[in-house]
Amino acid sequence: MPTEGDPTTLVKATHLVVLSTIWGMQIWVSFISGFVLINNISKHLFGLVQSSLFPYYFYLVLGGSFLNLVLYALYHPHELLNKSEAVQITSFFLCVIFSGLNAQWFSQSTNEIMFKMQKIEREHHLGQEVGLGTNREAYVKLKKNDAKYRKLSWHFKKYHAITMVCNLICIICNGLNLLYTAANLKTF
Predict the structure, then answer these.
(1) pTM, whole model, 2 decimals?
(2) Quick check: is 1 in a domain?
(3) Which residues of 20-55 are buried (b: 16+ CB within 10 A; e: fewer)?
(4) What are the tens digits of pLDDT across the range 63-81?
(5) Which domain covers residue 45, as residue numbers?
């Protein structure tokens, strides 16, 4: 049931605040905080922090994307969508799907595997080093000598890559929506 007329200022403001806040959070979490943390805290502490933050992060992206999809869909009936509006609503929908997949499955699986890997790493006195790539030889040796760890490492890389791709898709979708929203501002 589409809403007739133009959205109110409150609806427009809500849409813009949610979209820009979610996108800003995505940029911060994806491109800034992880790099700062990995270079300043131990590998295992980094994993613990990420495993604690990511569920909130993915659910916030999911909730914000869903809210924006609903608000946008209310004022843009699918029968009347032009090309740019179709791109926007599709982008919101894709972000809901991919952030939902991350929130419900991929990030949880990644965390479960990471904690199993950390247990094995602790048994070999690994995980307390600070900085990306530190003590790399010891991890390579552990993978070579421990079949269980090697299997976990492969699964971790697979799920981590899927999570990153889903997150990147959401960043692109929300960035695209910000671009379309900015292009349609009446005044500046």
Answers:
(1) 0.90
(2) no
(3) bebbebbeebbeebbeeebeeeebbebbbebbeebe
(4) 999 999 999 889 878 777 8
(5) 9-183
